[in-house]
Amino acid sequence: MSTRSHTESGTPPPERRRRTAAAPRPAGMTMFGFHPVTARLRQAPESVRELYVDAKRDDTRMRDLIGLAKAAGVEARRVEATRLDQMCPQRTHQGVVAFVTAQPATLDLDELLDRIEGPPLLLLLDGVTDPRNLGACLRVADGAGVHGVIAPKDHACPLNETAIRTASGAADSVPYVMVTNLARTIDTLEERHITVMGAADEATQTLYQADIPAAVAWVLGAEGVGLRRLTRERCDTLVSIPMVGQVSSLNVSVAAGVVLYETLRRTRLQSGALAARGAA
């Protein structure tokens, strides 16, 4: 019987083998829930590194997701729900968890504007730092056909897991462009004949009194703070959203829904020219 140690034989001891057996998980983000994972499979399936689904779910919704993954060349691994719980502690994952490569920003401002077909509809966020608010704004923007959401790099929320989850798939369908200087960005938009309209409580006219052109960029600030002075001064027009109840302001995503859908009603629906957000 040999008395050589594991070190002498070149074989790592059992406990070391156990520690090094598991490969590290790919760097990126965790996505969970049907809407975000389905959107990522449709928009960027190559970024889905691992996909896990609840082994006990066999309903239509789960079968559709597995079929979509299969068509995209992504293996859906069936595991116990307890394992999914460990991957997403204290989260409502709906039996779907994916580990994805973070999608880098692929568009700058000029590229975004150049690819828009028809009158642009844009949403600018000034000082919105809560990821849930960002996600909700992206979701509203998607519904209203917005071509892109723009925010400053130094005073905004990055597109993180919480924002992506809240957006329910819209983070993969609406471009999110972060710019160095929001005031200069407004100047650029105006040079391209896009009217910049800001929502501000102190405005002398309401949203429903103002003219809204087809090519428009809406600028909204965080609830309770509003637009920063320089941003407000750069806007072509300021309007207020009428408040007739007891509360004095709306959440930014609610305000976004109000102004964007009023724009949609006036400039797209009434003319019968409901433009797709798509680009060339």
Characterization of the model:
The protein is an alpha/beta fold and 280 residues long. The protein has eleven helices and ten strands. It has helices spanning 6-9, 14-21, 34-43, 60-71, 81-87, 109-114, 131-144, 161-167, 182-191, 229-234, 252-269; strands at 29-32, 48-54, 76-79, 96-100, 121-126, 148-152, 176-179, 195-199, 216-221, 237-239. The strands form two sheets. The protein has a six-stranded parallel sheet with strand order 7-6-5-9-8-10, with helices on both faces. It has a four-stranded mixed sheet with strand order 1-4-2-3. Helix 3 (34-43) packs parallel to helix 4 (60-71) and helix 7 packs parallel to helix 11. The longest helix is centred in the last third of the chain and has 18 residues, at 252-269. It is elongated and about 60 Å long. The N and C termini lie far apart (74 Å). Residues 1-27 and 275-280 have low confidence and may be disordered.
